[in-house]
Amino acid sequence: QVQLVESGGGLVQAGGSLRLSCVASGLDFSTHAMGWFRQPPGKEREFVAAISWNDDSTNYAESVKGRFSTLRDNAKNTVYLQMNSLKPEDTAVYYCAAVKFGNSRFFQSSEYASWGLGTQVTVSS
């Protein structure tokens, strides 16, 4: 019943921007922290960003700090990842995840209960 659906991925040139969306259904979105992870080709999945269930804090991986931002719109059951100044090393499959009453310091995949299927982001030189 729980479903997370990412969208907004695609091909973009270095220095450009993309906005990813994750629409949630089958859960009480307003009580869940939301996280973003990514998996570059040939590498392990890594933390990107998180926003607390009560929208009082966010956290970002050092590699994206100052370039990416995440925000939530509870009325639309949607969390966004705004990605600016994209670099080739940002190329990855991006996933959103949810955990009830989580905070923005949930950095590990094992802390999240629900996952989307991912969306591909490719950044060219």
Written description of the protein model:
- The chain has 125 residues and is mainly beta.
- It contains no helices and eleven strands.
- The chain has strands spanning 3-7, 10-13, 18-25, 32-39, 46-51, 58-60, 68-73, 78-83, 92-100, 114-115, 119-124.
- Strands 2, 4, 5, 6, 9, 10 and 11 form a seven-stranded mixed β-sheet that branches. Strands 1-3-8-7 form a four-stranded antiparallel β-sheet, with no helix packed on it.
- Strand 7 (68-73) and strand 8 (78-83) form a beta hairpin.
- The mean pLDDT is 97.
Largest sheet: 7 strands, mixed
| Residues in helix, % | under 10%
Number of helices: 0
Average the pLDDT over all residues and give the rounded result. Answer: 97
The count of DSSP E runs of length 2 or more, i.e. the number of strands, is 11
- Counting copies of identical and different chains, the oligomeric state is single chain
Low-confidence stretches: none
| Strand and helix order | EEEEEEEEEEE
Describe this protein with a few key phrases.
7-stranded mixed sheet, 4-stranded antiparallel sheet, 125 residues, 11 strands, single chain, 50% strand, mainly beta
Give a concise summary:
The chain is mainly beta and 125 residues long.
Compile the SSE list and pairings:
Layout: E1 3-7, E2 10-13, E3 18-25, E4 32-39, E5 46-51, E6 58-60, E7 68-73, E8 78-83, E9 92-100, E10 114-115, E11 119-124
Parallel strand pairs: 2-11
Antiparallel strand pairs: 1-3, 3-8, 4-5, 4-9, 5-6, 7-8, 9-10, 9-11
